[in-house]
């Protein structure tokens, strides 16, 4: 009791009251304990006590058999109290240093290694790998996951964690922060260069001045897919054997029973028997009932809330710690890394600078458009606006349609039910994809963020965050704005109006002057859409790109209502696309004037639309067949439109086959409400043949170049070499297609056969080399043009 009162008075600095309590102890023949003396020293540390008084206190403490070190070894005091006690002691003993921890000792051999903490360091390190393992378990679907897929996912999680921990051990935080802080000052000036330095060059200059470990920018060891799967497989086996649920969750079980969390089962996919890891239904119930309404993402799949680190080499850039490659590729492909290592650094400078300029562009969320999308998403969705409905509502709608349909045979009913289930699964996938995008957008709605970029193996640039970025679909583009605005200038508003008309798809073959006049003509609809997107005329909903049209309408409304539209600060991004880029490159390579005119490579008062031209050619052929009595041609009367053939025309030059083209046309025909569903397959097969035929007639020069590239790749691969080339910007490209090789991974649960198409020990896959070369080569040219646009 006395020591508690003394501690209370010590915090108040009441030394006289503590002295009075010491007198009471003496009167009652009680000896002060160590806590009493510490209370005195605590009080003396808070007030200006003379050193001689502190010395007398310490002498009395030691005469009673206590030591100062014994207090610090077993202290349970708060940090502030310990600090005051130490301050008082060091006034009279300046060299005094407390020993806060005494090493535990034991005479029992069994616990000797435990007390010596032989494995303490490694256990602390391994603790960081527990969370990725449990994240994999908690994300398991109720029906389970294929062992191979799960092992690869878990192995990849462990590798990512290992990479982050390894880098964090080598980085000098102070030096790196100095470099990064100085680098950000360059970006704040909003210039591509400062004192003649590009971002990459400026970072290297700062790094040389500050100096941080070169190991941070050195090449990281890449684990092959077989190793990742073996590691994941071992951890899965361990979790299947050790993870248990408490028996009390099932009262019917005896107390000695254990409930495994995970089960290893087999299921058939076709004729193949596949191993699955399935969670216990109790685990699923626990997770569902205890789950929070939050989504968890790895940091490197989200936009960055600070500018990315510039790419300075093929091994370092974008993120500081998270693993990311300059050139993304399939797991197990090492050819690209080898080529980049051999490539002189000055050959990569243009590519690195282009990636840095793209990644340094700050973005923000267009909140008004986001609010409209979320309101529709939370209601029942809208397929016309590409907002998928909730799964429950979709299932009820399909059941209603099935009930209202005419009686059908058992086989027809079975087929219809299979189609309904397929559509339900597809709708659920689309719904979850949009949920991810909207959740990220809502989370970032008040932030400025950046998208770090890297390359695919053809040299095309892509944002590293996969779910939410400016290369997404219509609604994703509609909810993104530049964080840095610019004045519209004298003609900026006119260009916004022209862009709006382009997005509607209503005046594609008209001149710019006519499109501008049309925008002024429909200005009332534009303003109504901006002011009342869900309660007005809803004109924007019937356009080709409704969400971008809505965003542009809101921007135009703000501009026209500003005092001076030319001075209005606009943040609106105008997404521009080429007129079938692939055909543009083929026309340029072959100096094809007719083809160049069709894809707007030559000056013209009116824009040309190659998709409409192909649709007209296909329609002409369809009419001829219909007159000859071809039934499917007659069914397609009035359904051959630009939209139906556009995707196939666009992708033919990138190597799409008739099979892939048929699927594209089938998807477009399914979206037409009045088109008979039973004729979709036959109609898509018929149309894709006409599209290929029309393109061969219209772009004969392009076909000749494509055939030459195909034959060249065939001859190269026949010699045992893969096809390689260098882009105009100096980026080396290689096609990593080889014959398959199987690898056996043995385990206690089962054995796994892995197949790799990228093993350099195998011969090149001739068929894939020749078929892939034309589209890959054109993609590499297209990427070079895009990078030059970013640089200049």
UniProtKB/TrEMBL annotation:
SUPFAM superfamilies: DNA/RNA polymerases
Molecular function terms from GO: DNA-directed RNA polymerase activity; mitochondrial promoter sequence-specific DNA binding
InterPro entries from the UniProt entry: DNA-dir_Rpol_C_phage-type, DNA-dir_Rpol_phage-type, DNA/RNA_pol_sf, RNA_POL_N_sf, RPOL_N
Keywords assigned by UniProt, alphabetized: DNA-directed RNA polymerase, Nucleotidyltransferase, Transcription, Transferase, Transit peptide
Catalytic activity: RNA(n) + a ribonucleoside 5'-triphosphate = RNA(n+1) + diphosphate
The UniProt record lists the keyword Aminoacyl-tRNA synthetase: no
Domain of life according to the entry: Eukaryota
Gene Ontology process terms (BP): mitochondrial transcription
Cellular component, GO annotation: mitochondrial DNA-directed RNA polymerase complex
Ranges of residues in domain DNA-directed RNA polymerase N-terminal: 75-360
Record's signal peptide: none
EC number(s) given by UniProt: 2.7.7.6
PANTHER family noted in UniProt: DNA-DIRECTED RNA POLYMERASE, MITOCHONDRIAL
Family named by the database record: Belongs to the phage and mitochondrial RNA polymerase family.
Main function: DNA-dependent RNA polymerase catalyzes the transcription of DNA into RNA using the four ribonucleoside triphosphates as substrates.
Protein name stated in the entry: DNA-directed RNA polymerase
Gene from which this protein is expressed: POLRMT
């Amino acid at each position: 009791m006395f020591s508690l009162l003394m501690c209370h008075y010590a915090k108040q600095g009441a030394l006289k009251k503590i002295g009075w309590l010491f007198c009471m102890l003496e009167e009652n023949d009680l000896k002060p304990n160590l806590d009493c003396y510490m209370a005195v020293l605590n009080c003396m540390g808070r007030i200006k006590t003379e050193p001689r008084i502190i010395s007398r206190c310490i002498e009395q403490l030691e005469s009673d058999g206590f030591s100062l070190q014994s207090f610090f070894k077993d202290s349970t005091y708060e940090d502030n109290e310990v600090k005051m006690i130490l301050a008082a002691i060091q006034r009279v003993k300046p060299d005094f240093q407390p020993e806060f921890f005494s090493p535990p000792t034991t005479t029992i051999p069994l616990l000797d290694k435990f007390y010596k903490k032989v494995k303490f360091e490694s256990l602390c390190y391994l603790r960081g790998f527990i969370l990725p393992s449990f994240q994999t378990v908690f994300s398991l679907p109720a029906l389970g996951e294929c062992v191979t897929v799960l092992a690869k996912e878990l192995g990849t999680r462990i590798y990512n964690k290992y990479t982050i921990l390894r880098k964090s051990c080598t980085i000098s935080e102070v030096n790196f922060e100095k470099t990064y802080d100085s680098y950000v000052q360059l970006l704040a000036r909003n210039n591509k260069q400062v004192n003649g330095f590009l971002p990459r060059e400026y970072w290297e200059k700062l790094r040389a001045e500050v100096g941080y470990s070169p190991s941070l920018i050195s090449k990281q060891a890449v684990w092959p897919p077989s190793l990742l799967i073996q590691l994941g497989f071992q951890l899965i086996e361990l979790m299947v054997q050790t993870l248990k649920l408490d028996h009390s969750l099932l009262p019917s079980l005896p107390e000695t029973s254990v409930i495994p969390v995970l089960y290893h089962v087999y299921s058939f996919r076709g004729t193949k028997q596949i191993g699955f890891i399935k969670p216990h239904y109790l685990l699923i119930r626990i997770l569902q009932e205890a789950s929070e309404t939050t989504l968890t993402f790895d940091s490197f799949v989200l936009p960055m809330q600070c500018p990315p680190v510039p790419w300075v080499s093929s091994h370092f850039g974008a993120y500081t710690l998270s693993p990311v490659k300059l050139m993304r590729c399939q797991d197990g492909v090492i050819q690209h890394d080898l080529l980049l290592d051999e490539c002189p650094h000055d050959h990569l400078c243009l590519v690195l600078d282009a990636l840095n300029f793209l990644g340094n562009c700050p973005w923000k969320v267009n909140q008004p458009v986001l609010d409209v999308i979320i309101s529709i998403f939370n209601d029942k969705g809208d397929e016309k606006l590409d907002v998928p409905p909730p799964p429950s509502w979709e299932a009820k709608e399909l059941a209603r349609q099935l009930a209202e349909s005419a009686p059908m045979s058992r086989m027809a009913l079975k087929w219809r039910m299979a189609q309904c289930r397929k559509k339900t699964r597809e709708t659920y996938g689309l719904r979850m994809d949009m949920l991810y995008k909207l959740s990220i957008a809502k989370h970032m709605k008040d932030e400025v963020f950046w998208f770090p970029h890297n390359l695919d193996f053809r040299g095309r640039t892509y944002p590293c965050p996969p779910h939410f970025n400016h290369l997404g679909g219509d609604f994703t583009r509609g909810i993104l704005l530049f964080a840095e605005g610019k004045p519209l200038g004298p003609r900026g508003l006119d260009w916004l109006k022209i862009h709006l008309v382009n997005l509607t798809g209503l005046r594609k073959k008209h001149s710019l002057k006519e499109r501008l006049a049309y925008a002024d003509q429909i200005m009332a609809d534009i303003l109504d859409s901006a002011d009342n997107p869900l309660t007005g005329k809803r004109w924007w909903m019937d356009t080709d790109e409704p969400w971008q049209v809505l965003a542009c309408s809101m921007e135009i409304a703000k501009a026209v209502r500003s005092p001076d539209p030319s001075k209005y600060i606009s943040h609106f991004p105008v997404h521009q696309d080429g007129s079938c880029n692939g055909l543009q490159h083929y026309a340029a390579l072959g100096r094809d004037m007719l083809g160049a005119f069709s894809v707007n490579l030559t000056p013209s008062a009116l824009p040309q639309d190659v998709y409409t031209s192909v649709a007209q050619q296909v329609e002409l052929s369809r009419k001829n067949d219909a007159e000859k009595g071809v039934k499917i041609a007659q069914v397609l009367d009035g359904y051959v439109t630009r939209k139906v053939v556009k995707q196939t025309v666009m992708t033919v030059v990138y190597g799409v086959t008739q099979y892939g083209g048929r699927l594209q046309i089938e998807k477009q025909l399914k979206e037409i409400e009045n088109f008979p569903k039973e004729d979709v397959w036959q109609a898509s097969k018929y149309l894709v043949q006409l599209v290929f035929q029309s393109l061969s007639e219209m772009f004969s020069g392009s076909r000749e170049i494509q055939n030459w590239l195909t034959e060249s790749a065939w001859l190269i691969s026949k010699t045992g070499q893969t096809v390689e080339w260098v882009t105009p910007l100096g980026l080396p490209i290689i096609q990593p297609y080889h014959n398959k090789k199987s690898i056996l991974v043995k385990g206690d649960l089962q054995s796994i056969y892995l197949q790799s198409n990228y093993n350099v020990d195998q011969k090149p896959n001739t068929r894939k080399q020749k078929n892939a070369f034309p589209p890959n080569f054109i993609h590499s040219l297209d990427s070079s043009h895009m990078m030059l646009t970013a640089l200049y």
